[in-house]
Amino acid sequence: MAERKPGSVDGDRAYLWRLHRILALYVAGVLGFLALMTWAERQGLSRHWIGPIFLFLTVMVYAGIGVYGRTTDPEDYYVAGRRIPPMYNGMATAADWMSAASFISLSGALYLQGFSGTPGQAGGLAYLLGWTGGFCLVAMLIAPHLRAMKLYTVPDFFHVRFGGRWPRVIAALAAVLCSFTYVVAQIYGVGLIASRLTGVQFEIGIMLGLGGVLLCSFLGGMRAITWTQVAQYVVLLLAFMIPVSWLAYKQLGNPLAPLVYGEQISKIADLEAQLLDSPAEHQVVQAYLQRAKDFEARLQNVEVSLEREREKGRERIRALRAQNADVGLIVSASRELAALPRDAASARERWTREMRENYERARPLGGLPAHSQAYAGDPDGTPDEQRDYELARRNFLALMFCLMVGTAGLPHLLTRYYTSPSVSAARASVGWSLFFIALLYLSAPALAVLVKFEVMQNLVGSSFEALPTWMAQWARVDSSLLSVEDVNGDGLIQFGEIRLGADLIMLATPELGGLPYVVSGLVAAGGLAAALSTADGLLLTISNALVRDLYFQGSRRQASPEQRVILTKFTLLAVALSAAFVAALKPSEILPMVSASFSLAASAFVPAMVLGIFWRGTTRQGAVAGMLGGLAVTVYYLLSHVPAVQVLPRWLLADGLWFGIQPISAGVFGVPCGLLLTLVVSWITRPAPALPRIRSEM
Questions:
Q1: Residue 24: inside a domain
Q2: How many Cβ atoms sit within 10 Å of the Cβ of residue 494?
Q3: Domain total in the chain
């Protein structure tokens, strides 16, 4: 990308026009490439080649920008020389923001949870409203003030505003914690997409995508990342808008999905009513209910049940061998026997999880809420329905609060506004960010509705013998993404027999809608662009915090700016590999991990940062107490509900859910705690007013 040189207004205008020309040529090139691939597919190019071509070329384009933008200049590496025009900064921020959670999982959350959600899960609209509203807080409270201070990182603010060592150290550690949680989710998305495009194992897919991340952020820092994110935004915008526009045109005859998808909501309500009255769906519910009761019975005596299941498996293998059955059946039975839990503890954990899953799927509509209902439950119904209504509403508001406040505290997002040429440009950048994000966010609810209608109208009732090949391919990538089983044995697909993961809905939309496979490759490339763009910024934030804010500030080590940049690059490499290792363990779905990072950022940064900007009475001790207290409460509540931590003594963990709030919204407790501690401790430790001098008279 072009670099701006200081000069006159005419020079700035010429620089902008040059950027516009480069962007126009890039968009034309992307569209030309899509047309070429579509032609090649019609000429017989195999799908096995289309996916790798999309993966290779897109990653190479991003890597080329990274190589072109390589630098060791600190001003360029950390803040892109503070010379990114507002529109392009807005595009880069939108790409940074449209992470794997927004691109891949947001429509899936709306599909699975409806608009308002369930008592245990906030609806998808909470994500839309929370994330969008958070930018209003950034524009009004944070971005202009940080840009005016001409800093490099968020921990810089705490050091400059409060002085001393500890505010910066705590801010740096908090930045590492929330950013690492966030980047693991992005690299998980990278592995998911790369493995689907190329057919390789998930872990190898992670390493393939990670190469593109490192070439951008390792070589050029924020300078290369900014222009890479502009290029990535173009890809992900096309990848999102083409499928949703196609589905809208296919179903409604109008490609403007955000304007016309409302017609399908009433049709979905009618289809839901038909499914609730369907005898076949009732059979599916009873089958899952029986499975859940079987697992519940096993849990009455785990040791005896485990031994009984092993004996059944051995007896089946003996019977198959005695009948000279097909070798494939014997191998399958042997695998089922080997897959049984190794001991009673692991059996109890697995059977408890499967019991809960089957009880959930034994509910009407496969456990999904009615898509357009206001909240779960009924405020005028039975006591249980009133409780469900209150919990659903409470979790919706709690998650929306955490996402809004967390947006105002995410270090990798706030750093983007350090790259603006001026304070006014920082404000304009926020406005452009909202515009570019809105282009996709207004279409996400439409996509969820159109996909659900497509599933209910065309997939439900079709034969298992005629299952689309894409369903089997996605099931091989990860069974938690998609599973279809003929539970009632009628040979037809029922809605309750389809299990779709939130991370699948967007990626499978082209194949579900019958689009050419090229569009599937484009959507996967868009998801890859969303994950890579966010991962770039997060890895740079983590490495900056570790090197610039901890390693050099916490000691008397001397190094030139260029040496610091080099050390930051190698720290970034180590962090990326660590995040890839954690992502390969598949710790959770993308959306819960991302939501947890927002709670961490909201609790650690926002109370002390906002008070530090607008209240002169905020003291160093108050900021430290608020950051530690808010972060401690949030981490404690999050970890108390992680299955791996349940082995600890119960008195160390939170006793159930506080007020029914789910763990991903832990920030709703951490933010008030941090705010209160900052206020109280600052009030206690405020300096005493200086006494007036009394002039002695001689």
A1: yes
A2: 23
A3: 1
Quick one: 412 exposed, middle or buried, by C-beta within 10 A (0-12, 13-18, 19+)?
A: buried
pLDDT digits 0-9 by tens, 663-672: 889 999 999 9
Beta bridge partners of 122: 117
Helix (H) or strand (E) holding 499: strand 498-500
Span 179-236, pLDDT tens digits: 888 888 888 877 777 776 666 777 777 777 676 666 655 555 677 778 888 888 999 8
Question: Distance (Å, rounded) from C-alpha 123 to C-alpha 373?
Answer: 10
Number of other CB atoms surrounding residue 381 within 10 Å: 12
Domain membership of residue 21 (yes or no) is yes
Q: What is the pLDDT of residues 147-195, one digit of tens each?
A: 788 777 788 889 889 988 899 999 999 989 888 888 888 888 777 777 7
* C-alpha to C-alpha distances, 423 to 177, 351, 408, nearest whole angstrom: 29, 57, 17
Q: What per-residue confidence (pLDDT) applies to 601?
A: 92
241/333 Cα distance (integer angstroms): 46
Quote the domain boundaries for residue 25.
1-45
Give 540-563 as a DSSP string: HHHHHIIIIIIITTTS-----HHH
Q: What is the mean pLDDT of residues 53-64?
A: 80
Give 6's pLDDT tier (boundaries 50, 70, 90).
Answer: very low
Q: Looking at the domain assignment, is residue 41 inside a domain?
A: yes
Q: How far apart are CA 95 and CA 484, in angstroms?
A: 34
In a domain, 32, yes or no: yes
What the block records as the tokens of 92 is 């880069």
Total Cβ atoms within 10 A of residue 476: 13
Could you give the CA distance from residue 539 to residue 228 in angstroms, rounded to a whole number? Answer: 14
Q: How far apart are CA 385 and CA 374, in angstroms?
A: 13
Are 243 and 509 a contacting pair, CB within 8 Å?
yes
C-alpha atoms less than 13 angstroms from C-alpha of 133 in its C-beta half-sphere: 15
Query: Judging by DSSP bridges, how do beta strands 498-500 and 482-484 pair with one another?
Result: antiparallel
* Cα torsion 610, 539, 543, 641: sign: positive
> With contact defined as beta carbons under 8 Å apart, do 598 and 402 qualify?
yes
Q: Return all residues near 432 (Cβ < 8 A) that are at least 6 apart.
A: 86, 87, 89, 90, 91, 93
Alpha carbon 491 to chain centroid distance?
36
Number of CB atoms found within 10 A of residue 458's CB: 12
Judge contact between 402 and 633, C-beta under 8 A. no
In the structure encoding, which two tokens stand for residue 267, read together? 């049709």
**pTM, two decimal places:** 0.80
Tokens representing 1?
A: 């990308």
